[in-house]
Amino acid sequence: MARMRKAVWAASVLAYASQTLAFGFPDCVNGPLANTTVCDTSDSPSARAKALIDMFTTDELVSNTNSGAPGVPRLGVPAYQSAEEALHGLATSPGINFASSGNFSFATSFPAPIHMSAAFDDLALLAVGDVISTEARAFSNANMGGLDYFTPNINPFRDPRWGRGQETPGEDPFRAAQYALNYVQGLQGGIDPPQLKIAATCKHLVGYDLENPPGTNRFVFNAVISQQDLASYYTQPFQSCVRDAQARSVMCSFNAVNGLPACADPFVLQTLLRGYLGFDEERWVVADCDAIEFLFDQRAFVPDFVHAAAVGMNAGTDIDCGTTFGDNLGAAIQMNLTNSSTLARALTRQYSSMIRLGYFDPPASQPYRQIGWSEVNTASAQQLALELAAEGLVLLKNLNDVLPLSTSKTGTLALIGPWTNATTQMQSNYAGPSPFLISPFAGAQAAGFSVVSALGTQINTDDTSGFAAALEAAMTSDVVVYAGGLDTSVEAEGMDRTTVTWPGNQLDLITQLAGLGKPLVVLQFGGGQLDDVDLKSNPNVSAIVWSGYPGQSGGTAIFNVLTGQTAPSGRLPVTQYPAAYVEQVPMTDMTLRPSASNPGRTYKWYTGVPTFEFGFGMSYTTFVPGFASTPKASYAIQALVAAAPRDAPLDRAVLDTFQVEVQNKGAVKSDFVALLFVNTTAGPPPFPNKELVSYARVKGVGPGSAATVKLPVTLGSVARTDENGNAWLYPGDYSLILDVPTRAMHSFRLTGTQTQITHWPAAPSS
Ligand SMILES: *[C@@H]1O[C@H](CO)[C@@H](O)[C@H](O)[C@H]1NC(C)=O
Ligand SMILES: *[C@@H]1O[C@H](CO)[C@@H](O)[C@H](O)[C@H]1NC(C)=O
Ligand SMILES: *[C@@H]1O[C@H](CO)[C@@H](O)[C@H](O)[C@H]1NC(C)=O
Ligand SMILES: *[C@@H]1O[C@H](CO)[C@@H](O)[C@H](O)[C@H]1NC(C)=O
Ligand SMILES: *[C@@H]1O[C@H](CO)[C@@H](O)[C@H](O)[C@H]1NC(C)=O
Ligand SMILES: *[C@@H]1O[C@H](CO)[C@@H](O)[C@H](O)[C@H]1NC(C)=O
Ligand SMILES: *[C@@H]1O[C@H](CO)[C@@H](O)[C@H](O)[C@H]1NC(C)=O
After folding, report:
1. Which residues line ligand 7 (CB under 6 A)?
2. Distance 322 CA to ligand 2 centre (A)
3. Domain that includes residue 668, residue range
4. Per residue in 414-426, pLDDT tens?
């Protein structure tokens, strides 16, 4: 069974990687399109796109519904590959052609999304998106890359076992929504700018957050999700990505939701996406790679590939990342299973965005068409990658202030473990060649330590033959740093974990190292969490630092933080559950609220005691945060609704902007991440523990100084969602909760009558 699942995944990767590669811009001056409407910059994007697609024959419509599209040579429409990846930097993918050496052989490689998310630094995310889109344009202008990218991955990291949690901003839908908003804005060059920089893709719509749990896999899984959870959790990041950030594209997911595969589900693709979220006719839906093919050969949802193609197209999938559309839509039209106007609609949507990307416009008039190699891997891009790598590190334990380490006072530092010489390991997945990769070992040396190193053990092995050398190295040193945890050999696309304990014998080695009684720092890597309970309670484990996947400057960032050159300031973007969690709820249970068979998911609903809480993260200094002025004691619901701007959705209207002051009463200059939660007993039970409603990173607060930060909270953030998916403002008691653990609280009331602020569409009865 496991063997079969692996084979399926391998086949899928192969199909994806072997698609044709082709680039180049249409010639609107001398080519056959010159003087046609699509080249007329004074016309609207949709009129231009429609005029272009009207010229396509049925065969040309059919062949261009694949992601590897041949174009239309007789019209001078170039071939186009729309499968590009840029999860945290330009990544190896069918649509990016890295040179083997020299110019265009690499691009900036930022930390993995889970790591960047831990920084809670939205301005930096905006800047990351901007760097990536600049580098993408440089590749495009050299005919080495396309203009649309399958990023960001914003499925909430619901279960700690998920192999692709590393690709996401974590478990909290508000955090993921803000991540999407800022990252997409950086990628696309603004919120719905007239000229797009590149096109972003919100993925995967919807409810995709497992790979291969026992008994099923992502290609055939049916996620049973209540409308309440769909509205308030699973689609929250998509609401932001599609509606607020105006991403040009959405990817439908492999899984089914309540019986229908997402790429064949008119409720998801029409009612929710186009209807409720306002995904307009100038934006397109792409199927996850081979999801259309799998409608038949994995799911047997339809009798053959022809029906798979027709069902997907009719439901609202516009482009197939794969070849099932191109191979079968011709036959589907002949059999009257679909028609050419539906295909024309699909391509008009995609080409409307291509027009907004300037594809058919004179290059001389477009600043983005002037970007070249000199704008890739700039000093400021390198600095940003380093800054986010450091900001995303989370200090979980620091006994007796063993950190920061002093390079002058530390004689020898022993660096032990399977991440010691990590290079590409630091890049997580969906990465590409980077300008350099600074390993922890290189980072330690550059920081000025005299370093001895030993592997000790691998990520996931019972082999103890390296223990003796590791203990020997530790014994001869003054400080021991263990670098291990997870990597993509145990958490990956196609591979979930089955436990959240430290893999292999790493914990045995750490325990033996601890037995030496030397200062011992544990660097815990990986996108998923591990239960650190033993390390937390062991008095000889002096410090624990969580790192996701820190990217090209990982080693430098880690040692900048270990030595105090940069103070740690990241916060966990996920809950660190005790190991028993995985026995208490199957991965396939999509419910969030606690029940007899579920201890509750995420910090909002978990009824147990986490090893480390969502939002936890220590500092080298002593911060005292509090409300700068006493917030209001009550708000009238009807007045809030009446005062809300009419030109924006009601759930985006602001309840209030709270002023938080943070005083640095310690001795170290540091950033501070302000996290604001709300809890309530208003509306129907059960009530979540609390919910994140606002956050901000305050930069560089000096010793003895204070800084004030504004934290806006929307009506949507204090609303609660009913069983039909509608959000309501309920009168009753609320508390604002500042920081993790709680440092300040403020109670307020909502008064008046309960008021519905969103109108979730009715789901088809099953
Ligand atoms: C486009 O129109 C202009 C002006 O009418 C003409 O000079 C030019 O040859 C035309 N180009 C093509 C490719 O037909
Ligand atoms: C084709 O299908 C449509 C409905 O999708 C139907 O109205 C029409 O009669 C069919 N045409 C033929 C020739 O079967
Ligand atoms: C094509 O199919 C769609 C959806 O089934 C239908 O609404 C439309 O009328 C059809 N168009 C033509 C020209 O048959
Ligand atoms: C590489 O790019 C740089 C910066 O744009 C340029 O000066 C140089 O000529 C390029 N080298 C080659 C071999 O094209
Ligand atoms: C790490 O790399 C350095 C430099 O190449 C080497 O001396 C050291 O033995 C390596 N350590 C491990 C644990 O592989
Ligand atoms: C801690 O270190 C001391 C030596 O300093 C040792 O005696 C003790 O057993 C160690 N404790 C643990 C839990 O490893
Ligand atoms: C919010 O939680 C705190 C404890 O964490 C509690 O004291 C407070 O009463 C709660 N507020 C509401 C409105 O439930």
Report:
1. 679-681, 733-735
2. 28
3. 623-756
4. 999 999 999 999 9
